[in-house]
Amino acid sequence: MTLTAKEASRRTREICALAPIVPVLVIADLAHARPMAEALVAGGLPALEVTLRTPVALDVIRAMAEVPGGVVGAGTLVTPEDVKAAVAAGAKFGVSPGATDELLAACEAEGLPLLPGAATATEAMRLLARGYDMMKFFPAEASGGAPALKAIGAPLPQITFCPTGGVTPENARSYLSLANVACAGGSWVAPAALAAKGDWAGIEELARAASQLPRG
User: What average pLDDT is seen over the chain?
Assistant: First the structure.
């Protein structure tokens, strides 16, 4: 089933509306997948981005996709092959650090809603011209943070972003207060130290705090 750019953005916008924070997950131990997803969903963060940065990432997506209430996506999509593998693993959406014509075409052909990355007004305008109006602002802090994103929003108010990259509990509110931000991506809600100890209650607590961050 193919997907248009506009439909892709509509779907990713719906996913971003589920909670103020989308956990950005780098999971190296497959045994952590299900309890991690259960803790995050129980804490109020149902949209989960599993980055394709570890050998078990696709298996993690498969395991998390079975958790009730979760909406699991694949992050760090770079090639058409990544897209096909993510769809086969059960990913419901994709996230990319940037965007190429080949990657966009692959996601559209596979019917995978993509949150494409943009860091400049030119990149955002190129995606907008193709039909995307929901994007990832990455790397957020390195690209100027909330002030830069607010500035981009002035001439391009029709674009909504999910800033990711350097977002923390301390600066998340500054991003979420912007009119052109739907949610933010953050890794602090799933720290490796807590996962290593199996402290899923601790992760659920972090998720619950993040789920209550105000937007707009």
Answer: 98
